[in-house]
Fold this protein.
Amino acid sequence: MDEWHETDDAVLAQRAAAGCVESFAALAGRYQVPVVHYVRRLVGGDRRGEADDVAQEAFLRAWRRIDRYDRRWAFSTWLFTIARRTWLNQARATRRRRTRETAVVTAGVDESEPFAAAIATERATRLWDVASAELAEPAFTAIWLRYVEEKPLAEIGLVLDKPAATVKVILFRARRRLKPFVRHLGVGVE
Amino acid sequence: MTMSQDEIGHVRQAGEAAVLKQEAWEERPAFSEVFHDRLRRRLAATPVGSLRIANSEAGRPAHEVADGGPRPGSIRPLLPRLVASAAVIVPMIFGSIALLKPWETSRLWNKSAASESGVYWPRRPLAFPAVEPVEKGQDGRFLQAASAQRLITWAAVPPADSPIGIEQLPMFDEIEEGVVDGVKSLATTLLDVSDWTMLADFDPSQILGNSPATP
């Protein structure tokens, strides 16, 4: 087991491309938590079973197409790309893209202080709940990969299929969108 | 010491990023053995992986099988597609011809009315600005040509004795002759300038011909 922990991602991916299931299983174990976490946030709510199914499907797709992995980029970036696309395909098919159960209900909320009403009703207490409800999927993914996974702009661009400059703009707009909520929660430095 | 707006912005952004990361890591799921075991079983049962291994052992590149490639049976379904496409395209072509037929017959240039010289005659009156023929005065200079908006009506069929052809329009020859004459006279006048090195003494009125005296 220690051998897998010490082996580089690229080496494991190369072995997996040669047909080694154990190598790919080691990679899957290494990135199970971040991928599942991301997909659970994408799916939203308490639908953890559905999110885990999406994550499983993403790993299986990665396994089927492991020979297409480009070693110039981080393996986790490639996995996030597949996970995102898997979820998008499923969401389009089921037309449930923006129906997250724990999303903040924004209808009828004052645009200037939209979070105030949500706070008042105690429907949202965490910033990521707000982010998943307020941001479009590309912006949410960009914010997630940037601040949780600490990915560089270029790799976020790979996941979103957009240039790094566009990712920068998306991040800027997403932060601006979240700013009133952050201020209301008292986070950040005033 | 006060912070600039940029510094405040960076600090605030860093604070927001820290909060986002902290919140995310607080809810980070633990590693799931159940998830991993299920995935391993599915990986082992995935046919594509098994197929790739089999082909790798046989010494064949994996992509040859992954991409599939043409199969003998895949040619036969192509024929009905071609027939169906032709069944759509051919009526479209005939329909287009039927639609274009009236337009073709009412075109401005009627090829059936072409003269023997190959000049086509318009069937409808055309209006465009015409220039009076340029005439020379007694001193050889061109007279001021007057422009006028004229309605020129062309006969549907040219008169039998009409010598008109594009190359025989009277204006062009005269204009060309006048331009050639002008250039020749200008060149002659310039050659008459005695000393090209004395450009400071050059008098343009020499060329114009109305100078009282040449120094």
